[in-house]
């Protein structure tokens, strides 16, 4: 065995020990949190917000060093921007914690209660998941947001953020832990992996028994790595190759507003539109108006041959374009001959996130809602609404694109599971 | 590369192609099933039951060859018994399909509906999961049971049973597919992996995009393999290291009945008790009566030193005993000094399946229900009730011991997910 492999094995062993130690501490905290009252949890969230604001100067000083380092290391501007905190962003994090405190507590809710013929009373009750692992990139705001949501739902959280934000995360987590202690809750409800190497991410993905669920937050590559490698159950979030289909029976003015909003209002997020499908019957009227409006906003269009007949200046879309989540001011455009073709295209290329039809045709609307296989399906609205807050679920921890456990925006309820409480008077089974 | 590895790689490639072909057929069937009416699905279930009964003689003839082969190959009696079909068992499978037809259809149920301040109407609606993979051992009854439940919930199913039952499964699946066709539903709603080698199981575990969820059914080793290796989301089922705790304040007559039932009524199943915990205050009175009753039923006891002080003939329990799911007439017994010690033991050694306390003490009962971390927690009843039918959920596909998606008995609702249907009038996002 080469020396490199030997030291790698040592690093893996050390990472496993670290994660097991954190796992054991998180598990112990989770057992306490499971019975913490809403009052205690809300008091802790408010204290955490105060501690965050008190530590603001220190957090910003530490953070400045980190984003300047990232800038000097030649990281892209978008990366540096996500890493960088400002007074307004720290206030936003504190406000987020206060908002979570004001949401109803999902824990303890009765899902159903049945009295069985033999007299057994069976209650299905909402309980915390236990220990949640979050693997994310260098976005320090996720640290406070995720900790707040996990705590409110009665869970301990192990945070494994990007290494470029390690010192910032340390400062944030220590203020959150101070808030927990002041409120009489275990500080270990919020734990940071202080060695953000690949080995600790791998160890977290293998920590069955210590971690009940892993939620990766970040780019498509991070999420795919976690989904592929994790032995802990994962909730896949975030990738949104979203479509808008402008039907033959669309109100074209409405369609233009919706398409503009879905592409341009915030192109870097998962619920932004990436491909526009236009029915052939309205292509001559719609495409030129759409191109004028979107190109004026800086959008680069890529079209199928039938789009390019009408808009010859547009670059040809390749097979890859139909499958790409640009997260940028780029839009793939295709002319289709029917609703069926639109649905088939979406079900083939879509990521199951958010899909919209613009139409005044009742049957087309219903068929689109029924047959498109995605977490969120829309008639006559922008896909940009796919969001826990917009859906009235309070804050969200992410948007699930898998079908197991949670699909679509995930709020506090999605950070819980159930437990069956059975009340007997001596019943035994006879059959 | 050795030749062996080369041919193994070829086998893996072939298995992947087979599973992808089945996956594509299942996906196409699932899209049709998602909009099949309850009437159509129930008609199909009844036709499937009839076809099964019509084919009974042929199925039994094929099955006899298989169980005789297994017997000659020296397979254990319990294995041969699970593989073997009888006229009564085939009738039971048909009756199971008819029962599923009589259950309410979970698909289309509205989970909630909200009108948002901007006028958007958001509905959360129950929809099928899509394509479900079942990996199981040589138990042909699972073939019909799983197919019926998956179909009723609008899902296509890919069945990968043990190779010892391949011909029996073929005969069962072809009768089920005839029933589907007669009812006008796609036969590909039920697909059998006709090459039950390890490579096809591996390919099924890697079939992300084709298979939405895998449910392993069988022994602990099969389940652990699937949990460890699968890249498709898995629901972990079945392992039950279940405890009964006889509290200081227990009604000891009731405790004896519950303990006897939990251990002896059907020792081979996951909700049977494996470890008995007895409070020291009642050990002198309870242990001799318990030993007399259970040993008369053929139970072998294994005890901690304090049990052996009272029952010197009992063999000493090792650390391994506390962690073992015997599935047999063996019981580990431990004396504890407190409710806290009982809860700590259960949370340390238990598999999170079903745990019971026998007590007349209100606070002890509530603390046990709150603090034991398991899918099903009982006061004064036998753990043997952990079962979808016993809980009033209709038939069950298994009992989940994980927290994600479903925990505890899984019925039809647990074979569904949700979809958000959003009705707009041109709304776009402004913030």
Radius of gyration of chain A: 24 Å
Distance linking N and C termini of chain A: 59 Å
Taken as a percent bin, the fraction of beta residues of chain A is 15-25%
What structural class do helix, strand and pairing data of chain A support?
A: alpha/beta
Task: Summarize the amount of helix of chain A as a percent range.
Answer: 40-55%
CATH homologous superfamily (4th level) name of the largest domain in chain A: Aldehyde Dehydrogenase, Chain A, domain 1
Features:
homodimer; 431 residues; alpha/beta; Aldehyde Dehydrogenase, Chain A, domain 1; Aldehyde Dehydrogenase, Chain A, domain 2; 2 domains; four-stranded parallel beta sheet; 15 helices; 16 strands; 46% helix; globular
Molecular structure report:
Two copies of one chain form a homodimer. Chain A has 431 residues and is α/β, with parallel strands linked by helices. Chain A is built from 15 helices and 16 strands. In chain A, strands 10-9-11-8-7-12-13 form a seven-stranded parallel sheet. The termini of chain A are far apart. The mean pLDDT of chain A is 95. Chains A and B meet through helix 10, helix 15, strand 13 and strand 16 of A and helix 10, helix 15, strand 13 and strand 16 of B.
């Amino acid at each position: 065995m080469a020396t490199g492999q030997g030291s790698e094995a040592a690093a893996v062993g050390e990472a496993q020990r670290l994660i097991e130690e954190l796992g054991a501490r998180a598990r112990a905290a989770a057992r306490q949190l499971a019975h913490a009252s809403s009052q205690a949890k809300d008091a802790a969230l408010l204290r955490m917000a105060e501690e965050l604001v008190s530590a603001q100067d220190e957090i910003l000083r530490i953070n400045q060093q980190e984003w300047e380092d990232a800038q000097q290391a030649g990281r892209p501007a978008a990366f540096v921007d996500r890493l960088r905190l400002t007074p307004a962003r720290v206030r936003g994090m504190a406000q987020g914690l206060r908002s979570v405190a004001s949401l109803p507590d999902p824990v303890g809710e009765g899902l159903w209660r049945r009295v069985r013929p033999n007299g057994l009373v069976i209650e299905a009750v909402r309980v915390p998941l236990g220990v949640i692992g979050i693997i994310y990139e260098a976005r320090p705001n996720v640290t406070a947001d995720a900790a707040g949501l996990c705590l409110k739902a009665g869970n301990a959280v192990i945070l494994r953020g990007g290494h470029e934000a390690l010192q910032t995360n340390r400062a944030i987590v220590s203020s959150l832990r101070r808030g927990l202690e002041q409120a009489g809750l275990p500080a270990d409800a919020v734990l940071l992996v202080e060695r953000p190497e690949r080995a600790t991410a791998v160890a977290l993905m293998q920590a069955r028994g210590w971690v009940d669920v892993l939620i990766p937050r970040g780019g498509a590559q991070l999420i795919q790595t976690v989904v592929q490698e994790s032995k802990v159950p994962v909730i896949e979030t975030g990738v949104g190759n979203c479509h808008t289909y402008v039907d033959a029976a669309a109100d074209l003015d409405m369609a233009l507003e919706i398409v503009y909003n879905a592409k341009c209002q915030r192109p870097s997020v998962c619920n932004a539109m990436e491909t526009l499908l236009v029915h052939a019957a309205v292509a001559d009227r719609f495409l030129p108006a759409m191109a004028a409006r979107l190109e004026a906003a800086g959008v680069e269009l890529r079209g199928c041959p039938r789009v390019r007949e009408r808009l010859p200046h547009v670059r040809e879309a390749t097979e890859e374009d139909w499958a790409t989540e640009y997260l940028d001011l780029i839009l793939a455009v295709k002319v289709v001959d029917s609703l069926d073709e639109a649905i088939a295209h979406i079900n083939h290329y879509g990521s199951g996130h958010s899909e919209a039809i613009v139409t005044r045709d009742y049957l087309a609307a219903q068929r689109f809602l029924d047959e498109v296989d995605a977490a969120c399906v829309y008639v006559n609205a922008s896909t940009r609404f796919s969001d826990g807050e917009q859906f009235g679920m309070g804050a969200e921890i992410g948007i699930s694109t898998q079908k197991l456990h949670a699909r679509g925006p995930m709020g506090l309820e999605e950070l819980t599971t159930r437990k069956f409480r059975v009340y007997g008077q001596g019943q035994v089974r006879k059959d």
